[in-house]
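To: structure desk
From: M.T.
Subject: fold request, one chain
Message: Could you run this one when you get a chance? Sequence is below, nothing fancy, just the single chain.
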Amino acid sequence: MTSIKDAAETFLDSRRIAVTGVSRTPASHGGNVVYRRLRELGYQVFAVNPNADEVEGDRAYADLAAIPGGVDAVVVATRPEHAVGAVRQAVDLGVTQVWMHRSVDGGSVDPEATRLGREHGLTVIDGGCPLMYGPDADRGHRVMCRLMTLTRRIPRQV
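Reply: Done. Structure tokens follow.
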């Protein structure tokens, strides 16, 4: 197993990241927050939403396979029952990094998706948020990371 900190660092070293579940009506949807912030930080991000042609002012893709040139990593920010489909696609496409987003709620974490990804050699981070880690993490995300780590809502090992 790998520490969450090391896994997060490797994930954030990826430059082409898909975010599944980016909503057409963003409000404070976790997927949209992650998508916007990664875009602001200079990542090449791709919104995945099978029900939209555009989100956050950018083209949306129906699935991971539709993204030209593929991606290095995937943030799953869908309902948990859709996570296994995203992980299956990641496996099929050779993507090795998957992060199932979880904030204060249950988030996108699905035990079957976690198991499937790990059985196929993927690094699956099953909880927390990529915005909680790295030198660009804002104060709010850093505080949330500490609290969620203390309450074990973020795994310490993946």
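Reply (cont.): The chain has one domain: 4-150. Let me know if you need anything else for the meeting.
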